[in-house]
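Researcher: Going back to the complex we discussed earlier. I've cleaned up the inputs and rechecked each line, so this should be the final set. Can you rerun the prediction on the complete assembly and write out the structure?
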Amino acid sequence: MAQKQDREAPKTGLDRWNATESKSRGSKGARSARPGRTKRRRMNPTVRRYVSTLVVTAVVCLACAFCFTPLGERITTGLDIQGGVSVILTASKQDGSAPTADEMNTAKTIVEKRVNTLGASEATVQIQGSNSILVQIPGATDADSAVQTIGQTGHLEFVRLDDIGDADALAKIEAGASNVKLEQGTYTAFLDGSYIQSTSIAQSSTSVGTYAVNVTFNSEGADIFDKVTKELAPTKGQICIVLDGVVQSAPAVQEEISGGKVSITGNFTSDAAQELKTVLDSGSLPVSLNYSESRVVGPTLGQDSLNQGILALVIGVAIVIVYLFFFYRGLGILTLGSLVVFAVLYLGLLAILSHYGMFSLSLPGLAGMVLTTGSAADSSILVLERFREEIRMGRTVKNASVSGARHGIMTSLDADIVTLVTALALFFVGTGTVKGFGLTLALGVACDIVTMFGFKAPTLRLLAAHVIPSHPGFWGVDQDIVEAERRSQEAQKARGAKVPASSAKGGEARA
Amino acid sequence: MRSHFSHEISFIGHRKQFLTLSCILVILSIVGLAVRGLVFGIEFTGGTEIDFYQTGNITIEQMRDALAATDEGTATVQTTTTQGEAGFLVRSDTTDPTTANAHAQAAAESLGLTSDNYTVTTIGPDWGADTTRSSLMAFGVAILLIIAYVSFRYEFKMSITAVIALIHDLVITLGVYAWFQIDISPNVIAALLTIMGYSLYDTVVEFNRMNENAKQLRDGVHHTYFEICNFSINEVIVRTINTTIVTLVPVICMLAIGGATLKDFAFAILVGEILGTYSSFAVASPLLAIWKTREPKWAKLEAKYGSAQKAPVTPATGKVGEKNEPKEG
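Model: Rerun complete. Updated structure for the full complex:
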């Protein structure tokens, strides 16, 4: 029947689509429809393709659902939601030049070390952009101490043991205790970290399997160190390496050291040597760090905001669904299904990214999610509108489902790509909240595109094969079919053809 | 039986009114920006913002006294309401986070509040410049990419008119912020960039149809670019209305019940979304049609059929169906 219609179709508005592609499509669809109807057991290739697409989508959805349950644990919540301290430090150099990537990495390591002393296990330290470091300490409530610890400038000093006045501390150091705290004013340093030129780790030459930390001083530092070691060498006196008032290590001087190259040995393991190196590096921070932003959020406040956001999302989506059912009737189920598939894919993706520490849900991110849900609903509307429009133009329901979905998706893709371009620009160029917002937006658009191809189009086409034509009223296309009938009649009247109204296309579409 | 699909609303016929309205709005916005200026949040100027929540019966005087006792006497204090609970928003120019935290803690303690009752945000003085710069760069990069994509996919004239409509939306949204003196936060910047996406989304959907119709529509009724343009807008009108409702509902929900952060977004997006829909048929499409009609091909058709001049095929009551007849068998 569809073939007959193709031949008889009057050249109305639909003609412009017929001209380009529907002839071949339409007749193909008609041919493939027949065997499906007679031999129900064997699916024809088109139907099989749709079904297998849906099966793949279902499997992906199940995998996603597995990824994100339980929801609360699998999706990392940002600091503005779970509460805590967030600090952004900006690095700058004294000579005004931009810090290099290496310098930023060193600075990051140092900040990490400081943050860890706060005992915050989930703290994250990230480099943002070319010169910022973002520190997030979830659950930290003592904002003051957190801010102070991160902000202190690591001050590295070299102190002769015999310059330490505090007898208690002295005794502890001699006994080999680590992390002995020295009070300000009880000691005098002969050198500080600013004289260090570079540090490195090497295999110890004296005992196999242990490591040494090599320090190179600049010429001024070398001279001072030479003088001090000359005095200490005969008695094997100790030099304390003091970071921020805490003795980190107190190696004994074995010999006079000139030339500024010092090797600190002490049966260090690789890790211990690395740690000492970090301490030494801390004192010679390659960049100076300044506060750019500090944010302290009470834990319950964030949770309240999250609940409000989720409530807004739920109410918003519920109203949208009711509206879609009202407007599209049965086809609203398709939209609802698309939204569910979209949500499952989206949450799955976010859970996977959370797992790898690449995503945490912030309030702006939540807003981004609400917005992308809007555009996911929009792509359904685009497809359904095009589908109904093509029915009005005189296509059969089945043909309209094939070409309507395709045209709708093409339009939607163009619009999605434009949104994606914006989102990616936000993600790559923006910083902070803007960045997180761009990421959720881009992921949402990606999920929407997958939903269109993986669920919306095949489902609509499968339904259009038999289910929709037999119950046009329920699926909300009856009015479109009536419209098509009317247009066709008018067209025939205009042509003066004496064709009985019963052969109007609307009737065929229903048959 | 006449169905509701057969009416064609004359959008393009009213292009002069639409464009005049848009011009007035843009001028008003620019005046607003020049006279009242934008209020930048502390993220741009540097300073400290302390949000107190669930403060119960504490009065604004008590709050001011408590702050004055901690050397924050110059801070501005506003009352806020979150989910029916009273609160305060305190802004000061303290840029040292340690001091700011200590002050907030002291003030909270003197008022009998715990650390659960407030958040402190301190922004260093240089950060705002960085944020602005990176946001402007993101904006510039996005605009260039969009022009490139739309030119590649459709045509250059479409990309330019789409961008003009977009700038129209952004300027008016900023104008609203200037006239109502609402703070600009980084969230608002993110929202402005989203408006960009939405505005283009609507415009692209309409241009998509115009592009298709300009190439393939031969119904014997719509000859000139103005007519094709108007017909295309009408073809997608149901989708435009539905999409606008569907995207506005969650935004309105956010505005109604979302927290302060979400409201920042929601307001900008509400304004931008309405403008984005409006500008797609009232700014982008008419401008494109005017521009396209200057091309020899369309100018000839315009001279021949010229209906757009004497308002048209499409009076608001016109029944397209009656005229939508095939000329050839």
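Model: Worth noting: Chain A has a mean pLDDT of 74.
Researcher: Good, that matches what I expected from the previous run.
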